[in-house]
Amino acid sequence: MIPPEAPTLDPETWDPLRALAHRMLDDMLDYTAEIRRRPVWQAMPAEVRARFRAPLPAAPADLAEVYREFQEIVLPYAGGNVHPGFMGWVHGGGTAVGMLAEMLAAGLNSNLGGRDHAPIEIERQVSAWMREVFGFPEGASGLFVTGSSQANFIAVLIAREREARKAREAALPAGGLNGNSDGQLTAYTSAAAHACIGKAMHMSGLGAAALRRIPVDEHHRIRLAELRAAITADRAAGRIPFLLVATAGTVDIGAIDPLRELSGIAAREGLWFHVDGAFGAWAKLAPELAPRLEGLERADSIACDFHKWAQTPYDAGFILVRDGKQALATFAVDAPYLRRATRGAAAGSPWPCDYGPDLSRGFRALKAWFTLRVYGTERLGEVVARCCRLAQYLETRIAATAELELAAPVPLNIVCFRYRGGAGDTGEHRDAVNAAIAAAVQHSGIAVPSTTVLNGRVVLRAAIVNHRTQPRDLDALVEAVTRCGRQIAAAQATRPVSRDLGGTG
Question: For residue 494, what pLDDT is reported?
Answer without folding.
Answer: 64
